[in-house]
Input
Amino acid sequence: MMRTLWLGWIFALLCLPSLARADSWAPATRQTYFSADQNVRFTVEPRQIESPLAFFKDKMKDKNLAGQQRGGPVKAEGRLERRGPDGSWTTLWRKPLVNDVAPVSALVANDGAHVITFDNWHSLGWGDDAVVIYGADATLVRAMPLTAFLPEDYVAVLPHSVSSIHWRGDSSLSVAGDRLTLSAAIPPEGDNPEVRDFVRIEIDLATGRVIPPAGPAWEAALAQAQRVATAQRAYEAARIKALIDPLYGPKTQEEREWHDYLREAFMRTTAGWMNDSTSTTVLRNPAAEDYRASETWVLDAFKEGRKGDAISIASVGPPDNLVRVLGDAARAVKPGALKGARLYIVTTDQDRDRIAAILAPTGAKFIQLDPTRPIPQRKERIPGSEEEKKARAEMMRRWEK
Output
């Protein structure tokens, strides 16, 4: 399941780079968690893997014991200990854990009667063991997916990154040590993906039973999740429509829109789009106070360009100014300096020939992007098409090599 999920996100990132946040995971290491009174400790020894990259690659291939280091432990292990009056530690139990590599964090009851682990290394929120409750002698009380205590459509709109669901704040145990209070994220509204609000959910540790949440805070969390879901459905519909519709240049001078246009135009017009990328530079309007910096960006793009590079440039100012700046940049590099590079320039037919003549001495290949002409979408990037399915399969084959 995770293999399919990650491949899907990677493919989505290629199609629309702003869809999901990236992940960064340090290797799992031994971790020790103490009870509130510091008299009980729980130590996790992770399954040993070669590296996060080796783990990720093996997951793509659905390999058992993904990334396993030869000769290393093949199971995550937990050890619960109690401190004696003399300060020495006595082992209460030592057994394999449910998690694949290691849990991400844990809570320990003062009496040592329960240990609770949270999430899985490299995949927050996924799996049937997002929350695991161990009783005396490491008895498994219950292993739970998020949907055991949150509605499925609620989980679907929590912030996601490539491999994780960001669902949890600080959790705690009751003073008596018989209840777990989860701090579950409330799906954030608006453009800020960071979770700032949480709702409390309680679980009976002896049975693993979720105490049905209720009250104004819970109802407000459900209502907000519904609003987020509605907004996400609208966004997804607009995203798919934008992918399917012919592409035109933006009607505004918003730089972000022009950067998005340059990236999308590149992927629609470049045969090797799955394995290629482009830099994007937007020349500002000369009337803007911060215009001068954008001229420097164009010059730097020419000076730093190398064989095989793709450089995409647009201007939100007068066409004659773009021609002038491109001319200055072309003269600033040695003849032939950009041989083997590609220059994607946004221009209409009116200035195409002038720009082509200006760029010719650089040795770069000039590719015109006319913002007034529609650029059709390539079939392999249309969601649900047979061509898209083949493109996904091709990506999977490449990951397996």
